[in-house]
């Protein structure tokens, strides 16, 4: 029975993503490749909250993080995509094949923990913006949103769900529009982009951990790999042209995510920080950053951005947890399957959402919870990056598609840098 299950899983998971062959040419943006979805999900409510807080608190000082983090974000996501593309399996299944069970269980535990806390924070922030317009309790809004997202993820094929929600995520472009009309100090922007400025104190280092954690997030690793192998009825394509198409998809996705990060930090620096607002404790305060372009509608635009990215990202978070757990346990997994075809997979999604709702009973501040989630991602990511780096260099696993030197170097440097940050924080003065 187990052999039959493994055989069926193997057959199911040796498929490429159904839109990969379509991402070139006219109509590119009418479709969503795995990299585009990943880039959009990277700017989730946790990302918006973190970038807004950093821009408000530090002004233009940390803009250099955008160009510095982009190559590392691209390298790790490209590596995850390549591993899945060549093996036809998700990350957890590959780890199960090539590494000890202790590494597998540690990996799955870390990603499940980080994802669940991230879901709780995203639900909390989404509920907070709902209460800006509807007089209900935040907890009631959290429960409603969790049920809505959970039911949609279980009953609607994800590629259809994401195709609709990407239009809501366009509200993030309002931050780009503010750059044109706000009183942005472009000289300070240039200085912020080109001069790495980190003070030797816990506040600065914690900010960098949060920025890195929400830009290079563990859930994106598993999601990118899982989406590469969603069933399409085709044999996996590891030709050079297809590998290049995958890299282009990933690069566009991560560039868009990092550019929005730059826009949010610059916008909040030019609006909130310039007015002396250095601590964001409510959605209303965060929405003020959009006032130069949206005026009285700033709250509505901000709410659409939080809700749109949240409705896109929460299923990614829950889905990546379900992929990791199901692959580790040898269960059927796919967001394109019906619930009756992957009962354990969807059960993991339901449990993850339920725990996230329960965490909201603690009553943490919605905006602060977003930064806490980013910090947890920053602590978890380097461990997973080292594991992925090791797998990507395994020529027995990937053959000629093992990591090229530039990819291996970037992932390794990124992992060491993110691992060093928490240690620096411990020894830094308050």
List keywords for this structure.
430 residues, Amino acid/polyamine transporter I, mainly alpha, disordered N terminus
* CATH architecture tag: Up-down Bundle
Q: What string gives the helices and strands in order? A: HHHHHHHHHHHHHHHHHHHH
Number of strands: 0
- Backbone CA Rg: 20 Å
Give the CATH level 1 class.
Mainly Alpha
- The fraction of residues in strands falls at under 5%
Give me the number of helical elements. 20
Kindly name the structural category: mainly alpha
CA-to-CA gap between the ends?
58 Å
CATH third-tier fold name:
Amino acid/polyamine transporter I
CATH homologous superfamily descriptor = Amino acid/polyamine transporter I
Total domains, how many?
A: 1
Mean pLDDT: 84
Major sheet size, sense and barrel closure: none
* Helix content percent band: over 70%
> What characteristic shape results from the CA principal axes?
globular
Low-confidence stretches: 1-32
Write structural notes for this entry.
With 430 residues, the chain is an all-alpha fold. It has a single domain (2-17, 33-427), classed as Amino acid/polyamine transporter I. Helices cover 73% and strands 0% of the residues. The chain is built from 20 helices and no strands. Helix 2 runs parallel beside helix 13, helix 2 (34-42) packs across helix 16 (298-329) and helix 4 runs antiparallel to helix 13 (240-271). The longest helix has 32 residues, at 240-271. The chain is globular, with a radius of gyration of 20 Å. Mean pLDDT is 84; it is low at 1-32.
């Amino acid at each position: 029975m187990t052999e039959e299950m493994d055989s069926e899983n193997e057959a199911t998971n040796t498929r490429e993503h159904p839109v990969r062959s379509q991402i070139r040419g006219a109509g590119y943006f009418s479709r969503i490749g795995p990299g585009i979805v990943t880039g959009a999900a990277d700017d989730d409510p946790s990302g918006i909250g973190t970038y807004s807080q950093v821009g408000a608190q530090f002004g233009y000082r940390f803009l250099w993080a955008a160009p510095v983090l982009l190559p590392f974000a691209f390298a790790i996501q490209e590596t995850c995509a390549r591993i899945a593309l060549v093996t036809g399996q998700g990350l957890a299944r590959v780890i199960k094949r090539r590494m000890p069970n202790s590494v597998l269980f540690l990996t799955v535990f870390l990603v499940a923990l980080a994802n669940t806390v991230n879901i709780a924070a995203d639900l909390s922030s989404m509920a907070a913006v709902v209460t800006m317009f509807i007089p209900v309790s935040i907890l009631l809004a959290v429960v409603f949103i969790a049920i809505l997202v959970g039911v949609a993820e279980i009953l609607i094929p994800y590629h259809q769900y994401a195709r609709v929600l990407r239009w809501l995520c366009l509200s993030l472009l309002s931050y780009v529009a503010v750059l044109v009309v706000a009183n942005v100090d472009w000289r300070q922007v240039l200085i912020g982009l080109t001069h790495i400025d980190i003070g030797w104190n816990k506040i600065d280092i914690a900010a960098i951990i949060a920025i890195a954690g929400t830009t290079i997030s563990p859930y994106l690793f598993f999601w990118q790999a899982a989406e590469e192998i969603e069933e399409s009825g085709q044999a996996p394509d590891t030709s050079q042209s297809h590998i290049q198409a995958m890299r282009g998809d990933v690069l566009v996705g991560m560039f868009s995510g990092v550019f929005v990060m730059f826009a949010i930090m610059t916008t909040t620096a030019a609006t909130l920080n310039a007015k002396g607002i250095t601590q964001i404790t409510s959605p209303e305060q965060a929405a003020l950053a959009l006032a130069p372009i949206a005026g009285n509608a700033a709250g509505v635009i901000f709410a659409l951005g939080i809700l749109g990215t949240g409705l896109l990202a929460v299923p990614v978070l829950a889905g990546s947890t379900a992929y990791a757990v199901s692959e580790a346990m040898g269960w059927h997994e796919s967001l394109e399957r019906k619930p009756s075809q992957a009962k354990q997979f969807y059960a993991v999604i339901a449990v993850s959402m339920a725990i996230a709702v329960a965490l909201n009973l603690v009553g943490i501040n919605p905006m602060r919870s977003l930064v806490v989630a980013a910090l947890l991602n920053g602590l978890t990511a380097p461990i997973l990056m080292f594991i992925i780096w090791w797998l990507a260099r395994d020529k027995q696993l990937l053959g000629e598609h093992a990591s090229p030197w530039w990819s291996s170097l970037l992932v390794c440097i990124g992992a060491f840098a993110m691992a060093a940050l928490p240690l620096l924080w411990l020894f830094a003065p308050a």
